[in-house]
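Supplementary notes (optional reading)

For those who missed the lab, this is the record we used. Protein: Regulation of enolase 1. Length: 202 residues.
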Amino acid sequence: MDLELPELPFSLRTYGPDGHWSHEDGVLTAWAGARQDRFVSPTGEALDPASDAPRLLGAPEGDFQLIARVTVGFGAAFDAGVLYVHVGDRAWAKLCLENSPDVPTVCTVVTRGHSDDANSFTVEGSSVWLRISRTGRAFAFHASRDGKKWVFVRLFTLGGEKETEGALVGFMTQSPMGEGCVVTYDHIEFRPDWPADLRDGS
């Protein structure tokens, strides 16, 4: 299924299980089903083909920032709303508001063959602002409690410039341990540039 969001200059396509994606009055809504996740354990074997989660992704050109306020209907450990970037089957990354395991937390996962997993800071309530930025082959993750002052979370690559030119970016939902959860994304914004400074809060 393809979906056009007026806030974004590129179209979006669904991937993985059905997320029941909808967009109305500036709010994007999706559901994660029971035991849906996208993670390749560094202590285990290859990604289970059944291990997947609903994704809604598109391919922006050049430098960009993708911003959204993410709100999660937490029901179980590791339920999360995600901004997601995908370069290949084993090269992708997640910026999450996650119940980790019982406190809402900004978390990141970068997968290069296998996934890593890192927590950043906790959040009061069920909402936080998330931002993915790209310049060349570099990606940056930021999060914000108010959408104004941004906390630098991570800077990384998923390959060379040739591989990342066609990167898919967008939204994902997950409920690895639970029976599912609903996630909403609002205040969605696209900026065609890279932040002037990654660490000064702008």
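If you only remember one thing from this example: The chain has one domain: 2-43+52-189.
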